[in-house]
Amino acid sequence: MTEGDAIPDLTLTGAAGPVRLVDYRGKPFVLYFYPKDDTPGCTREAQAFSALIGDFEAAGVALLGVSKDSPAKHAKFAAKHGLSVPLASDDEDGTVLQAFGAWVEKSLYGKKYMGIDRSTFLFDADGTLVRAWRKVKVPGHAEAVLAAAKAL
To answer: Where in the sequence numbering do the catalytic residues fall?
Structure first.
């Protein structure tokens, strides 16, 4: 996905069932990918987006966090940390992660493996990608995304 691309017609698994990305057309939409529920960085990121959910809603912006964790694990994660940001799973074959280029080769202590690149995508109301953040650093990120969304 690059800026100017249309939101793809792909489906994730949400707490209440299937979540089609194209259904978010009609208002600005933030889609963020994170590696794993209940890890320090991912928890801080979800807490930051949750703290600003009212500001996103007031600006008319939908928000969705995605990882490969199951909906049941998302529910435990949200309950444990009091999260209000909606979460969905790309748990089947990682089709959505691959489409967004968020499924990448990583390296830890010299060992290579495939994992999720922490990344965020902002779509306008027409479903066009207007901004992409890759290799996201958590501090201040949710605030930067909110500012960009409000500027649409």
So the answer is: 42
